[in-house]
Amino acid sequence: MTSDLEKIDLIRARLGVGYKEAKDALDETDGDVVQALIKLEQGNLHIRERLQGRSKEAVGQLRSVLDMGQKTRIKIKKDGQTVMDLPASLGVAGLVGALYNTELAVLGAVGTMAAMANDYSIEIERTEEEGEINDYDFRLYQ
Q1: For residues 74 and 68, is the Cβ–Cβ distance under 8 A?
Q2: Low-confidence stretches of the chain (pLDDT beneath 70)
Q3: CATH topology of domain 4-63
């Protein structure tokens, strides 16, 4: 006859669960190892399905944000001429980088002050689905 500890060790070895989870499954199945394994496997499937659903949702949202970033452009202009034209997603990446790296934050601040001193402007342009363009003009000076 097999002891409870041996049954628990068998369940843990097969499914990689903790002692408590294995013991609880054995108690709920009146010591039947096969039924405990089935119960734990079914529980793991439900968890995996939920995680897969959430990961698909997160990937979908990320794709949507990246697509929106590609449709939105940041243009830096001086005297009506475009000096730099970037996708908004690249601008967001720079902002996130500046939040995590002080050197990038200082570089961004210096660049902004230089742009203000030289009368540069920032335009945010978003291309609509129908091909219509919305422009938002932000001057870096007053």
Answers
A1: no
A2: 1, 45, 69, 128-142
A3: Helicase, Ruva Protein; domain 3 (1.10.8)
